[in-house]
Amino acid sequence: MKVVVLTGGISTERDVSLSSGKMIYEAVKRNGHQAVLLDVYLGYTGKDVKDIFEKEEDWAKEIGSIGLSNPDIQAVKAMREDGGKNFFGPNVIPVCQAADVVFLALHGENGENGKIQACFDLMGIVYTGTDYVSSALCMDKGLAKELLDYHGIPTPKGFCLKKGEIFEGTVPFPCVVKSCCGGSSVGVCIAKNEKEYEEALEEGFRYDDKVVIEQYIKGREFSVGVIDGKALPVIEIAPVSGFYDYKNKYQAGSAVETCPALLSERKTRELQHLAVRVFQVLRLKNYARMDFMMNEEEEIFCLEANTLPGMTPTSLLPQEARAAGIEFDHLCGRIMASALGDADF
To answer: Is 163 in a helix, a strand, or coil?
Structure first.
C-alpha cells in the first residue's frame, strides 16, 4: 500500500511533528508498505512525482531529536522559494492524492485545526485522525470546554479572554493561563499572583489572540487514549519538577510516567468512561487522547482532547497501547486500518 506520512509544518510544534513522523514512517516501512515522509510546508521539489513511492530513499535520515526551545519558523519559511504564499509545499497535494492513505503526523496550527482535513475531504484524500469538524472543536480550548460543560463532563472552571480585552471580574489564584489554540503546553503558565498573571497573559498572547484562564487543579495528572471508541489503559504523568510543560513532555527523564496508572479499579473505569464520553461529545473519530486532572478529593476534571496525539519516543499514547499489548508498529497499522474502514487490515 502507498502511504504518505505528513509531518513538519510551521507551528510551534514542528519539531515534535517531525519526531512523530519519523517514528510512524519507520513503522509503516516495517509493516511492508511503500512510504514517503513528506514535510507539508516544504513539500517535494523532485521531478519524479509519479514514481515517488518507488524511490529507494531514506526519507527520515535528516530528522534529528526534538528541540527543547521553539523552532525557528522564520528560517523554515525562508527555505521556500515561493515565499510560502500557499501553506502546502510543492507537490504535496499530488503526492497525497497518489497515496492510499495519508498518516497525519502533524501537531498544532494547520495540522489539528481542521483546515487540512477539510481540504483533503474535498479532494477525496483518505487520512488518519478525526475529521475537520471535531478537529476545529478540539483545537479551540474555549469552545471545547463549553461543549464538555454542556454535556455534564467536569472541566476546570474558567473563561476566555481576547487580546486587548480586560476581564472585569476577580481572577482566582492560582490559575492556569494558556493559549486557546496551542498544543504541547506551549504558551501555558501557572500564575500565583497578579504580577505572574500579567506575565502569563503576555506569554499566552504571543501564540494566539485568545487565551483561556481556568482554575488550577492541584493533584494527579492522567491521560487516556481512545481508539475506535474504546479506551486504552490509563497513564499517570508526574513531572520531576514543575508541571507537565513542553520540556517535561519531551526531555527524557523529566517526568515519571506510570502505565497502567496505580489507581483503584473504580477510578480506572471512571477515567476510561469519561475519556470515551469526551470522544463522543467532541465528535471524535479514529483515535485521540484525553487529558485529566484528579484533585486531592479524587474529583476528576477533563483538561482537553488531543486529536493527533504525539507519536514520539516519549509520547503517552504509544505507552498506553503497549500496556494493552499493542506494540508501536501494530498501533500504526491499527490507526491506518480504522481510517480506511478495514477491520481486517
So the answer is: coil
